[in-house]
Amino acid sequence: MAMKLWDKGFEPNEIVERFTVGQDRELDMALARYDVEGSMAHIRMLQHIGLLTQDELERLLDGLQQIRDEIQAGQFCIEEGIEDVHSEVEKLLTERLGDIGKKIHAGRSRNDQVLVDLKLFYRQEMIDLAEEIQTVVQQLLALSQRHSAVLMPGYTHMQIAMPSSFGLWFGAYAETLVDDLHVVAAAYELANLNPLGSAAGYGSSFPLNRTMTTELLRFASMHYNVCAAQMGRGKSERAVAYALNAVASTIGKMAMDVCLFMSQNFAFVSLPDEFTTGSSIMPHKKNPDIFEVMRAKCNRLQSIIGEVSMLTTNLPMGYQRDLQLLKDITFPALTEMHDVVRTLHFILPHLRVNEHILDDPRYDYLFTVEDVNRRVLEGVPFREAYREVGMQVQRGTYKPHKEVHHTHEGSIGHLCTEQIGQKLEALMKRFQ
Ligand code: ARG
């Protein structure tokens, strides 16, 4: 029944087969286009070193191109009984081209084949994620500018602390996401190293030209040591997990802020009705479920570092089938991360900002530091000014002057939007 690349004339046990193949037939679909791309580079190299004729190469390239078109048209699937995408592609080539299809796997193992597929996949995923983040950052910077004059309370210990603003609040998430791009770029750069040619993890006796496949697949460089290349499985995933962790922690915190700020006790922001959800029992409810689910997804996304680490910790050098299960962790996480970033992009323009928060006298004490500083500028020593204002608060006679004059870099009055934009631009250059 099932065709196996490693068929030696016996049928594998069905339970072992199902258990070990796991989710590969579904998950490998995401790798299909990269698998074909990797094979194209590999056979060009095989022809170059004399293991394929020019004619064989051309027929194989045509066959692979046809498969690539089918993948693009959504006509490709990994058939019942076929283990994985690598087996499916080789099977199709052999069915269509006969014996020359059987030549493509010389000097290669599925171990480095899946490694190269994953590198190409993660590399593209990190580019896509960075571009999605860039869009959200630009949106947040525009909101920060638009609401730069709208003050809000700043908190420490969840207690009213000092004046903040929507300019600062939006801008803070913009800049933090830009800083998170350092981690995304690190994952990208690690994915941009060629593992192909490491074969089963110990190289090959064919005179493979790894520089050639590195160039053909537009990798920045390669993992030179073949064992290091194999060890890259798990390392790439850790880096991706750190990238998702960084981004998810920022967006999760913002989602938490919005949930809090939408509470009637705060009422700093609101959403139009159609973006809220109701209750089956309480007729008045308009809940911020979208931000709650965003928070939950972000929290869960942050946990995959633990899963990746636990799966790979203490595995010995060399390929182990355990590594296959990394795909079960990272693939759905990447899908979820894109969904979160795109949903944030969708909802942000609908967030309404309360422009009169500080009219409420409960926020008067936000201005005590401003009043201390004004005295200091008039020549009163800081500790004395602090005590004067402190005693007014203590006696209940404090009256705020509700203006803020913050001028240093990154403060309410000087958001440095342009500089944050430049930081973004510089980071995006790393993804080329
Ligand atoms: N599905 C496998 C994986 O992702 C492909 C490599 C299989 N190699 C092997 N020696 N069984 O790890």
Report the radius of gyration as a whole number of Å. 29 Å
| Biggest sheet character | 2 strands, antiparallel
| Number of beta-strand segments | 6
For the largest beta sheet, what order do the strands appear in spatially? Answer: 1-2
Unreliable stretches (pLDDT < 50, length at least 5) are none
Global outline: elongated
Helix/strand class: mainly alpha
Topology order in helix (H) and strand (E) letters = HHHHHHEEHEHEHEHHHEHHH
What CATH architecture label of the largest domain applies?
Answer: Up-down Bundle
Bound molecules: arginine
CATH superfamily of the largest domain: Fumarase/aspartase (Central domain)
Instruction: Assess the beta-strand content as a share of residues.
Output: under 5%
CATH class of the largest domain: Mainly Alpha
- The helical percent reads 55-70%
Mean residue pLDDT: 96
CATH topology of the largest domain: Fumarase C, Chain A, domain 2
What is the distance, rounded to the nearest whole angstrom, between the alpha carbons of the first and last residues?
45 Å
Number of domains: 3
Number of helices in the DSSP assignment: 15
Descriptive account of the structure:
The chain has helices at 14-21, 24-27, 32-48, 54-72, 85-97, 110-146, 166-191, 210-216, 226-262, 289-301, 304-312, 326-347, 368-377, 382-395, 417-428; strands spanning 151-156, 159-165, 193-194, 221-222, 269-270, 352-353. With 432 residues, the chain is mainly α. Strand 3 (193-194), helix 8 and strand 4 (221-222) form a beta-alpha-beta unit. 37% of the residues are buried. It folds into three domains: 14-106, Fumarase C, Chain B, domain 1 (Orthogonal Bundle); 111-204 and 224-359 and 407-431, Fumarase/aspartase (Central domain) (Fumarase C, Chain A, domain 2, Up-down Bundle); 361-395, no CATH class. Bound molecules: arginine.
